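A.,

Following up on our hallway conversation. Structure tokens first:
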């Protein structure tokens, strides 16, 4: 089995696409006005409009109502990313901080309130752990 994507359901696809294009530096593919994909080397971040939910089953998802998922991106220079994004991100949860598990991370919210974590392995153990993942 291969992990393929994470999909965010939103009422404003264009707003989230612009936000994640800025965060990732990747241009989204837009196969339909109600759907977009940001295809990264390790995974795809999909963004679907609330109108797409009935295709999966009525009431199967709710827009902008996430309280348990963190969308994470590994980066090469967390402090550089912070400088690049600090004027663009509206809601910061945590500025760059080294975590007990060896990653230097920062957390912020996207326009729908979803938590986003950018992190960089910085300790020898964390660097080794991620070097095995590719």
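Then the amino acids I'd put at each of the 134 positions:
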């Amino acid at each position: 089995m291969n992990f393929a994507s994470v999909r965010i359901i939103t009422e404003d696809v264009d707003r989230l696409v612009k936000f994640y294009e800025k965060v990732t530096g990747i241009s989204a593919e837009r196969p339909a006005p109600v759907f977009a994909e940001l295809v990264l080397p390790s995974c795809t971040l999909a963004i679907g409009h609330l109108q797409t939910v009935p295709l999966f089953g009525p009431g199967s998802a709710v827009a902008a109502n996430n309280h348990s998922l963190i969308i994470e991106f590994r980066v090469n220079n967390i402090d550089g990313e912070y400088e690049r994004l600090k004027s663009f991100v509206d809601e910061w949860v945590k500025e760059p901080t080294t975590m007990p598990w060896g990653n230097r991370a920062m957390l912020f919210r996207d326009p729908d309130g979803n938590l986003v974590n950018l992190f960089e392995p910085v300790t020898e153990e964390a660097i080794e752990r991620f070097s095995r993942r590719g």
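The two ends are 17 Å apart (CA to CA). Curious whether your intuition agrees with the design.

B.
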